[in-house]
Amino acid sequence: MYKILSINPGSTSTKLAYYEDENMLYLQTVRHSAEELKPYARVTEQYDFRKKVILDCLREQGIDLMELSAVVGRGGLVRPIESGVYEVNDRLVADLRAGVGGEHASNLGGLIAREIADAIPGCRAFIADPIVVDELQDVARISGLPQIPRRPTFHALNHKAIARRYAAEHNTEYEKLNLVIAHLGGGVSVAAHRKGRVVDTNQALDGFGPFSPERAGTVDAGVLVRMAFSGEYTQEQMLKMLAGKGGLMAHLGTNEAYVAYQRAEAGDEHARLVLEAMAYAVAKEIGAMHVVLEGCTDAILLTGGIAHNDFIVGYIRHMVDRLAPVVVYPGEDEMGALALNALRILRGEPAKVY
Question: How far apart are CA 326 and CA 302, in angstroms?
Answer without folding.
Answer: 7
